[in-house]
Amino acid sequence: MRALPDKSIDLTLSDPPYDLSKEMIETAHKEIMRVSKAAIIFSPPENQWLSPSQYGFWVKPISTKNTSKRYSRFVEMIFFYGDLAWNTDRHWSQYTNVFQDLVDGDTEHPYEKPISLIKRLILNHSNPGDIILDPYAGSCTTGVVCKMLGRNFIMVENEKEYYDSSVIRLSKV
């Protein structure tokens, strides 16, 4: 991201790893806000990102992941930052900040987000031709949706396994 000019990204939409240290969150947040006009970041309640202008919540379907000897988290926070585009033909009161979407089919990544949720966020908060960044691309759901909706995208993924599966996944769209 350091090579990207200030405010060169129309929207960053990302689901960073939830085990980042406070220092890593602060550093990533600073860079995302430098390069982005607006951002949407998923975050667990116990390791929150910084000072959003709006909050949203994804109520996840029942899951048994990571629940050994503790309660499961069925809600993830969605933080909205910056000058978000708002594209909808519905009245604003038709939307709430609570989303209930399911991950359909087989997943390539243990923390994959639903295509329907990512699609709604991209349609609501970007325009065709916009540049969307996901600096924690994982299985590349954001890139897949961008390709489907005519958005330009920059995806970054450090883990080779997920990068390789993303290249294959994107080639099928």
Characterization of the model:
The protein is of the alpha/beta class and 173 residues long. It starts with 10 loop residues before the first strand and ends with a helix. It is globular. It has a seven-stranded mixed beta sheet, covered by helices on one side. It has a single domain, classed as Vaccinia Virus protein VP39 (Rossmann fold, 3-Layer(aba) Sandwich). Helix 1 links the parallel strand 1 and strand 2. Helices cover 27% and strands 20% of the residues. Helix 2 crosses helix 3.
- Mean pLDDT across the residues is 87
How much beta, percentage-wise? 15-25%
Please state the second-level CATH architecture: 3-Layer(aba) Sandwich
Structural class: alpha/beta
Number of strands: 7
Q: Which sheet architecture does the biggest sheet show?
A: 7 strands, mixed
Dominant shape: globular
Rg on CA atoms, Å:
16 Å
Number of domains: 1
Secondary-structure element string? EHEEEEHEHEH
Oligomer: single chain
Instruction: Trace the largest sheet across and list its strands.
Output: 5-3-4-2-1-6-7
CATH-assigned fold name: Rossmann fold
CATH superfamily: Vaccinia Virus protein VP39
Q: How many angstroms separate the termini?
A: 26 Å
What is the CATH C level class, in words? Alpha Beta
Q: Helical segment tally? A: 4
Uncertain segments of ≥5 residues (pLDDT<50)? none
Helix amount? 25-40%
